[in-house]
Specification:
FAD/NAD(P)-binding domain, flavin adenine dinucleotide binding, 20% strand, disordered C terminus, globular, oxidoreductase activity, acting on CH-OH group of donors, FAD, GMC family oxidoreductase, six-stranded antiparallel sheet, alpha+beta, 21 strands
Length: 578
């Protein structure tokens, strides 16, 4: 029998960027918030001396233990899904800070095209540009509506960057200047300009100078140590929930953080949620945390799983195209070409978001009339900081072991440089999330089942963008340029890209979306679902900036919901904030 706990104003499920922002904003407004996190507490002090590639980048110390909880995967509806036992295509974080503790720090605005992609594509190219099996739809919000929340996220995070010449003019400057440049990035910039492209220094959460944010939290200057992705920052220089919004929430005295609390379901009565049930993973005890408002702020996959498991919302059915929970699951198409140079570069120094990028082949910035795909991807050269286990590439034909392999690995370690693209992913009728009918977790609950495969859209976009990456490397003077090929079918392993979206998507129509533009459920109005699970497709950028912006807007929506005493929060027809 679960023990009932006293009701609070709000309970969040997960304490990463989304949960931290909700906690910070609502507790500053005087609400009592409980944050439930299934992992352990993590602060800057916990990341001291973490420069251990094997422990964190190979054995995934900061990620969910797949031997205790995993998902199942298949490519198509007629296959048997099997449990994922090894990380590769994406990483499921755990612990306070979530993925925000171990991200690289790329902090992007999605484009105006992304938010109205269906309307804009139909208007320019006709309604048959993509076949009907692609479930493309607008997000129910515009770029102009979301822009103020993007700026709010940047000011909290201290984002470093410079203007993108191919985007709408910013209404506010970046809080901090762009990061340092390097010979590698200067060479990329020069080559791109020779090709008549428009490169710029990318927005970064590895901030360029000491910064105090509006909440009074101080972030330190990046040390360019090269240990960002899959690592926590020991300097407190990477914008993360651990050094920004979580301390802000705790400082109010209105926030209670409970770790080792694994939420197994949402308690509800009809069309109202009354709280959540969770298990203390250390003692095995069950608790019901009652709350006026339930906010799901966990990873994309877990937000979907909790709703399906709790029988909230209408599960998506790919055969009929009806339902919304699990719909529009998207990946991200990572196009890569590697250049091998005669010169040596100091590639060991770097940072997660130390890079130069261009948008000439992203969004609808180029004409797709004669192309068999839409959208595109940002094309970037980064200096992440090379590490010896994962990054010892050599040209094709090099033996994979032995004396020659060792010699070639050493030769090319500081001479090989990739150009990569974050390619957009469009939703397809047969790519979706559901509960597995066979496999269960330690508590007897069904595992989440992922059904996903590359589409013709993916393959066409990948081929086009990879060729553009190779052109830039050729212009840079690479001795050898090797584009990477896309596999025929998607697989969990090897590693490809961490950015997954969809499953609990937002929109303007309850028939085709699960959430309104405040991320409030149409069907259960005191449940808000925040994260990349709300994206109706995946764009050509990293998703975190958009997750943060939507979280700030959702926090405003929750306050409006309480003021209006339990009604759906509506947008005014004039497109101004309600």
């Amino acid at each position: 029998m679960a023990k009932k706990l006293n009701k609070v104003d709000v309970v969040t499920v997960g304490v990463g960027w989304a949960g931290g922002i909700i906690a910070s904003e609502l507790t500053k407004a005087g609400l009592k918030v409980v944050g439930l996190e299934r992992g352990e507490e993590r602060t800057t002090e916990d990341f001291q001396m973490v420069h251990d590639e094997y422990r964190y980048a190979i054995r995934y110390e900061l990620m969910q233990d797949l031997s205790k909880e995993t998902i199942t995967f298949r490519n198509s509806l007629n296959e048997q899904a099997l449990p994922m036992r090894q990380y590769g295509a994406f990483l499921i974080g755990t612990g306070v800070g979530g993925a925000g503790a171990h991200w690289n720090g790329d902090t992007w605005f999605f484009s105006p095209y992304d938010f109205e992609i269906k309307s804009m594509t139909d208007k320019k190219y006709g309604k048959n540009k993509l076949p009907k099996e692609y479930t493309l739809q607008d997000w129910g919000i515009t770029y102009d509506e979301l822009a103020p929340y993007y700026h709010q996220f940047e000011k909290m995070a201290g984002t470093s960057g410079e203007l993108n010449p191919l985007r709408p003019e910013r209404t506010e400057e970046y809080p901090t200047p762009p990061m340092k440049s390097t010979p590698i990035l200067d060479r990329y910039m020069e080559a791109a300009k020779k090709l008549k492209l428009h490169p710029f220094r990318q927005p970064s959460a590895n901030i360029s100078e000491v910064y105090k944010n509006p909440d009074g939290q101080t972030l330190n200057q990046c040390q360019y140590c090269g240990f960002c992705e899959k690592f926590g920052c020991e300097y407190g220089a990477k914008s993360s929930p651990n050094v920004t919004v979580i301390p802000t929430a705790l400082k109010t005295g209105n926030f209670e953080l409970r770790t080792h609390a694994n939420v197994t379901g949402i308690i509800h009565d009809g069309n109202k949620a009354t709280g959540v049930r969770y298990v203390d993973v250390q003692t095995g005890e069950e608790f019901d945390q009652l709350a006026d408002v339930v906010v799901l702020t966990s990873y994309t996959l877990n937000n979907t799983r909790l709703l399906l498991q709790s029988e909230l919302g209408r599960p998506y059915n790919p055969e009929t195209g009806t339902g919304v929970i699990g719909k529009n699951y998207c990946y991200q198409i990572t196009a890569v070409a590697t250049g091998f140079f005669k010169e040596r570069f100091n590639a060991a120094m770097g940072a997660g978001s130390l890079g130069t990028t261009l948008d000439d082949y992203n969004n609808d910035n180029f004409d797709h009339s004669d192309l068999d795909f839409i959208h595109g991807g940002s094309i970037t050269m980064k200096q992440l900081g090379k590490r010896p286990i994962n990054e010892n590439g050599a040209p094709s034909g090099t033996p994979r072991w032995g004396k020659e392999f060792k010699a070639e690995s050493i030769k090319w370690f500081n001479r090989s440089i990739p150009v990569t693209s974050q390619g957009a992913s469009m939703p397809h009728r047969n790519n979706y999330l559901s509960l597995d009918p066979t496999y269960k977790d330690a508590y007897g609950n069904p595992l989440l089942r992922m059904t996903y495969d590359f589409t013709k859209q993916d393959q066409a976009l990948y081929k086009y963008i990879t060729a553009r990456c190779a052109e830039i490397l050729t212009e840079m003077g690479a001795e050898v340029v090797e584009p990477k090929e896309l596999t025929e079918h998607f697989d969990i392993v090897p590693a490809q890209n961490d950015h997954i979206t969809g499953g609990v998507i937002m929109g303007a129509d309850p028939e085709t979306s699960a959430l309104n533009n405040y991320l409030q459920m149409w069907d259960v109005d005191n449940v808000f679902v925040i994260g990349a699970s709300a994206f109706a497709h995946n764009g050509g950028y990293n998703p975190t900036g958009t997750v943060g912006a939507l979280a700030y807007r959702a926090a405003e929506g929750i306050l409006k919901y309480r003021e209006q005493k339990g009604q759906l929060v509506k947008r005014e027809s004039s497109n101004k904030l309600a």
